[in-house]
Amino acid sequence: VRFGESVSEAMSDLGGARNATNDHAVRDQSVLAPWLGTLELGHTGFRFVRLDLEDKGRAIPLVGLRAVSLMRDLEYRGSFRCSDERLNRIWQTGAYTVHLNMQDYLWDGIKRDRLVWVGDMHPETKTIFAVFGGHDIVPRSLDLIRDETPLPKWMNGISSYSMWWVLLHHEWYRYTADRAYLRQQGEYLVPLLQQLCACIDKQNREKLPEVRFLDWPSRADKQATHAGLHALLVLTLDAGAKLCGVLQERDAARQCRETASRLRQYTPDPGPSKQAAALMALAGLRDARGLNEQVLAVGGAARMSTFYGYYVLQARAQAGDIQGCLDCIRTYWGAMLDLGATSFWEDFDLAWTENAAGIDELVPPGKKDIHGDFGNYCYQGFRHSLCHGWASGPTAWLSEHVLGIRLLDPGGRKIRIAPQLGDLDWAEGTFPLGQGLVRVWHRRQADATVKSEYTVPDGVEVE
Questions:
Q1: CB atoms within 10 A of CB 51
Q2: Domains of the chain: which residue ranges?
Q3: Buried b vs exposed e over 375-395: b needs ≥16 C-beta within 10 Å?
Q4: What is the tens place of the pLDDT at every residue in 11-43?
Q5: Which CATH number is 79-346+385-407 given?
């Protein structure tokens, strides 16, 4: 029995040049079939299955074969529809990708690694807010990795992932206003922030230890990694100062602010890295418009990653380039749909699409295998995950920027509704808050203005 996220993976043998594996989940195995009975197997992520009868000269009457979907029974409270069906499919695919990974905890991928990686959780959590609201899988996953990582260790062995843990708590508090839960983090949060405040040298540059990681495509670029980590540390300490303020940890809040101020006295060069440039724009280290013109918008959707694609979109939106963002989403995430995707992938490069067959077909002679022939680092060939939650960024982004729904205070008691339609004729949807659903309808008028209607739950003020 061979399972695959693509047809070609299901047809592959273990090992080989295309790196088919049983890592993290067994997807290729020989089993005994019972006589007049049933057999259940295959706790993995898959779309395609190949069956072979290994006993020579034997036959087996196969009465039925059924795939079982193990997913939480969740209502999609958030929604998004617009005049571009491609964007509608992308929003829904991002939501489905994260839904699949909401298992015992919030996993990175349903085939691989089936683990809690804190950095991966940040885009996933933003998508969960937009689709499901404040689901308790987020704090349970944050608590799991906290309890597995006594200080001074770094979460998942990666210094930036401990920073993402702080940023996730900031996001959770902004969405829920749950002070009681935040107080439970103080004993770990404050020493972690103090540990991070020590990661700065005399020239006011970050000096975070290994493993130094932004995302896989930037892994070998030391200049980009430094610039991105410097910006991420600024973002983390800004968020940490706010959280410490809520906790009335005044000394820790002051230390975070002072260290962030020192870091802002130094401006690293992101080079051509869109990942690093995006974080620098979001941290306010350089002007977002300038970075968009010089780095982020260059080449359109080229040199993107599915993980940091979300932050590239956020930075380009900050620069006012909504149309560029919509075009990027259509081109980059849409290309995965064109290749047969029903969930978004661990990584993707537009260059891979040249002469490539889709994942839902046998690869014709003369065509490239988009799954088996590409990838890098730990995701070469068929080891590449084709359902990775960190790739869901457009779902959260479209709800925030096109529907225009943004929380202005913790818990969403005050919100702003400011749609940015770009070239769209209309957009409508819902966004879940703790108090209920925000519903919006936006229509472009003949004079190019946008008419908006909305309903909000009781107790929610629209600015």
A1: 11
A2: 79-346+385-407, 410-462
A3: beeebbbbbbbbbbbbbbbbb
A4: 999 999 999 999 999 999 999 988 889 999 999
A5: 1.50.10.10
